[in-house]
């Protein structure tokens, strides 16, 4: 130990010089640009090394050999570090190791910007943007190439430009493409930006009508079981959405692309059902979200329409042998198996949750022209006895896997039937793949397969650990007192033994 101290004391300028040169090179290579610290440290280190070489007694054979070896090794390390940093700067590559790929554009966003027919420009009116926002915009530009660009403009430095856009304050974001311009009124996130690009570059994707008059789910926010989130999501994707009362109109209005029957509780009148049948024959799309009801009402007056399409409703409630969602009971069907279909593409092994659902089967012509979209796993069955605790009875119940939804081509038209409507209601719409199932179904029925089907926000994974108060107190005391105290005790013991 004394020898090491003596060597350092006699040759400290050389060692400090090497450390300063190393720090200066590293800061110059990887530190911020236009800052003097790298050069200053490098200059100071070279000066100390020069002093050590010419003023200190380093030139005896043994010292020269040892010193030369140290210098060569240090230089070799510096050269390697320099090459590594040079390659990193010239050929940058980033890895997204987050659980849900938060820092990578979703496949839907990538497909959207890769198929842009004309350039899109994003203009942010602010003094500066946050690093995550800049990284998001850079991700778009990297994927889209010259079809995407962005610019940050300070309204105070360029008031003429701000006035041209009608800017009212800092933070406003505008999209431009050709002669079209649109303000992004929501927060600048991937989901909002991609949907804004769709609205800017595409014509209206279609007209969607929600059937009313039979106890269907409400569209206004704040009501129980409302479809307000689903409605807003459709509007964000450039759909025109209107309520429809077939008892008044007698037929589906001209120009309508999709009719949605969301959880009707009363049967449709015969003329209404015939209007939907004719609508499908004319090339329209119908989305039936049908909760299980008592046998006499379960077909909702749509028996002939379903029979023509080759679709049959099971009518029994789907239950699970375990509680999937805490507090929701066992009446939640979970699907992880999906068909090869535009509605379920890219779902992988993700989940969709269907509370109080019924199975939907393809029969006859439906087996030729349709596909079961999603299947439950095992441990789920269709229960016929709803008055007692559900117990699987092979005589009256149906064992899973069970199909919860089907998609059928009916001549020129299309039909999607899902044995549940609550999955798309407020509170469940943004849960797992529920919203994707709804939006993708509407998009397929509107025959918009060329468009990205679903662009959803990526929420950060909640990794907070909920710890009981006594355990949290114990951990705090251990960190503040236990570990430092243990180190001090160990140091005292070592000192006592060596004194």
Automatic annotation (TrEMBL):
Residue span, ABC-type uncharacterised transport system domain: 207-428
Transmembrane regions: 12-31, 37-58, 70-93, 471-496
Keyword Protease among record annotations: no
Pfam families xrefs: ABC_transp_aux, DUF7088
UniProtKB keywords: Membrane, Transmembrane, Transmembrane helix
Gene3D superfamilies (UniProt xref): 3.40.50.880
SUPFAM superfamilies: Class I glutamine amidotransferase-like (SSF52317)
Domain DUF7088 span(s) in chain numbering: 100-169
Family matches, as InterPro entries: ABC_transp_unknown (IPR019196), Class_I_gatase-like (IPR029062), DUF7088 (IPR055396), IFT52 (IPR039975)
Protein known as: ABC-type uncharacterized transport system involved in gliding motility, auxiliary component
Organism of this sequence: Gloeomargarita lithophora Alchichica-D10
């Amino acid at each position: 130990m004394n020898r090491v101290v003596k060597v350092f004391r006699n040759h400290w300028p050389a060692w400090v010089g090497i450390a300063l040169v190393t720090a200066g090179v590293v800061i110059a290579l990887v530190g911020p640009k236009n800052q003097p610290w790298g050069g200053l440290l490098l200059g100071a280190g070279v000066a100390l090394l020069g002093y050590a070489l010419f003023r200190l007694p380093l030139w005896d054979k043994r010292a020269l050999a040892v010193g030369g070896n140290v210098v060569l090794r240090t230089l070799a390390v510096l050269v390697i570090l320099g090459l590594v940093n040079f390659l990193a700067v010239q050929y940058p590559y980033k890895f997204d190791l987050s659980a849900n790929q938060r820092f990578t554009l979703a496949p839907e966003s990538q497909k959207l910007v890769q198929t842009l027919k004309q350039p899109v420009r994003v203009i942010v009116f602010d003094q500066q943007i946050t690093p995550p926002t800049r990284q998001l915009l850079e991700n778009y530009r990297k994927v889209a190439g010259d079809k995407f660009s962005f610019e940050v403009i300070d309204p105070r430095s360029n008031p003429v430009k701000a006035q041209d856009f009608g800017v009212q304050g800092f933070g406003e974001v505008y999209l431009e493409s050709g002669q079209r311009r649109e303000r992004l009124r929501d927060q600048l996130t991937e989901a909002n930006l991609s949907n804004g690009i769709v609205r800017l570059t595409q014509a209206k994707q279609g007209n969607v009508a929600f059937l009313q008059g039979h106890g269907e789910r409400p569209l206004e926010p704040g009501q129980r079981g409302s479809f307000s989130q689903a409605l807003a999501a459709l509007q964000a994707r450039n759909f025109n959405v209107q309520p429809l009362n077939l008892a008044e109109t007698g037929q589906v209005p001209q120009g309508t692309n999709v009719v949605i029957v969301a959880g009707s509780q009363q049967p449709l009148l015969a003329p209404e059902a015939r209007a939907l049948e004719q609508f499908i024959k004319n090339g329209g799309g119908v989305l039936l979200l049908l909760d299980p009801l008592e046998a006499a009402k379960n077909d909702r007056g749509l028996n002939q329409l379903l029979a023509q399409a080759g679709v049959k409703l099971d009518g029994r409630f789907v239950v699970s042998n375990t509680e999937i969602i805490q507090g929701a009971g066992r009446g939640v069907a979970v699907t992880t198996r999906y068909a090869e279909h535009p509605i379920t593409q890219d779902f992988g092994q993700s989940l969709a949750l269907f509370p109080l659902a019924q199975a939907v089967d393809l029969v006859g012509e439906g087996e030729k022209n349709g596909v079961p979209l999603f299947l439950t796993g095992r441990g789920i069955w269709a229960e016929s006895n709803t008055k007692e605790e559900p117990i699987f009875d092979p005589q009256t119940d149906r064992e899973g896997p069970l199909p919860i939804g089907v998609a059928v081509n009916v001549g020129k038209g299309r039909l999607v039937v899902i044995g549940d409507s609550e999955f798309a209601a407020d509170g469940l719409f943004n849960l797992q793949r529920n919203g994707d199932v709804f939006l993708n179904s509407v998009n397929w029925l509107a025959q918009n397969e060329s468009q990205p089907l679903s662009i959803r926000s990526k929420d950060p994974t909640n990794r907070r650990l909920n710890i009981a108060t006594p355990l949290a107190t114990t951990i705090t005391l251990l960190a503040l007192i236990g570990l430092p105290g243990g180190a001090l005790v160990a140091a005292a013991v070592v000192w006592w033994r060596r004194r």
